[in-house]
Amino acid sequence: MIGKYIREKLSWILLLVAIQLIILFVAYMDSSIPLQSLAYVVILNVVICIVFIWARYPRETRFYKKLTTWDHTYDLTDLDSAESPYELIVQDAVTSQTERYRKESSSSLILLEQEKDQMLSWIHEVKTPLTALQLMIERTPDEKLRNQMTYEWLRIHQLLDQQLHQKRIPFMHNDLYIEETELESILNAEIRALKSWCISKGIGFDVSLGVTRVLTDSKWLSFMIRQLLSNAVKYSESSDINIESWEQEGHHVLSIQDHGRGIESQDLPRIFDKGFTSTRGRLEGAATGMGLYLTRQVAQTLHMDIHVESAPGEGTTVKLTFPRKNDMVHLASV
Q1: Same domain as 190, residue 80
Q2: Are residues 214 and 322 in the same domain?
Q3: Residue 296 buriedness (CB in 10 A; 0-12 / 13-18 / 19+)
Q4: How confident is the model over 295-307, as pLDDT tens digits?
Q5: Engineered SS bond to 260: which of 53, 166, 236, 290, CB 3.0-4.6 Å?
Q6: Helices and strands per DSSP (H, E), number in the chain
């Protein structure tokens, strides 16, 4: 800050230096003026100027120092009161700009909340005809047609489910309920929901749970498992999906392994990016690139780690690592 202060006052400093040099020059040119006496005066002026700058520096930079450390929130109480006319100009500009941004932010939040409510209402309304459609599909006598219609119905249902949770994720902290959750019951419910799809593709499940209870939010964990199982079934054919859980260094780990086509090595670093569908996903046109993105968003909020291992033609393994109990207790108290 001292360097900036000197640069700010440089023109005044140069003016004072020039005046002292002119005084010395006049005394040098005019023999009737004692040069030594004027030299003492010049030295005294320089000392006085240095002391003055040293004394004024803290006072004149206090407001601006506070401004540079301000965290740019809407709270202006962290700023010191302006004293000089120029400081008042800066303070008025910052205050008016902050008030404008505060109003715009409030309006945007209101519109976002309205949009979210409208979307959630629409999704819940669509679920009613979907339920009726499911009953109609179950009564279809043609098994092949029934399986095809069930698959398309399931895709619509999952897309709506993704939209529903995508709108809720920004407000997850208001909807968390951390409790001891039974892994088996959640897995069974999600597997049952995919039963007809799995039967048509010849896919089974091998479940081995060394850990049966985890501390987390059951609803959001169900959503994460739903996305991972859907991906495993989508990219597998006539093979089992292995689901295991165990304890590792105080953490509980849930693993979902399929033996499908796997993921290309160049795609692995980007699979959690929003909208990323890989080359094959673009060719097929069925992938949305949102499932893993939303899963990681939820995992981060729940302080969980998600790790993917995969190789082309060898399948994919997704590991969910739950945080230690102390971390979840802290999350529950937020």
Answers
A1: no
A2: yes
A3: buried
A4: 999 999 999 999 9
A5: 236
A6: 11, 7
